[in-house]
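Run log, item B.
One chain of 165 residues. Sequence copied directly from the ordering sheet:
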Amino acid sequence: MAKKMTSLDDLYIDLLKDLYNAENQLIKALPKMAKAAHSSDLRNAFEEHLEQTKHQVERIERIFSDQGNGGPKGKKCVGMEGIIEEGKELMKENIEKDVLDAGLIAAAQRAEHYEIAGYGAARTWADMLGHHEAAHLLQETLEEESAANEKLTQIAMGHVNIEAR
């Protein structure tokens, strides 16, 4: 049985572990999404975000190292697992390439929004708990996730959704 969470600090650590697992799941999923993408700028966006995601994992590891809270492993992010599973189902469909790209963007944005919510809470809690360096690192990741989401919107609105009509 898992240890009882009795404080905001416990909840904060639990969320960081969840985010760590979510990012590691994305490290496995993003190359598959990039391979499935037909639009070169969408493929490039997935590849660029994969590199960012690797750095985001390193930031969470650094937070755990700096705070001496053990390691970030030990939790499975079932939310991200579900989002990724929906993306896998889409890629298995008999679907026209431009429509697939629009669907891949939507799937990726669901993941981004999930992460934005998690990192926003984690950043706020870190700051409240006096973990100011961690809050700074989490803010950096939050900004990257927001920028990735915006880039996907630009690709969608710029041509992918138009081509999928």
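Observations after the first pass:
- The mean pLDDT is 96.
- Residues 59 and 137 are 6 Å apart (CA to CA).
Flagged for discussion on Thursday.
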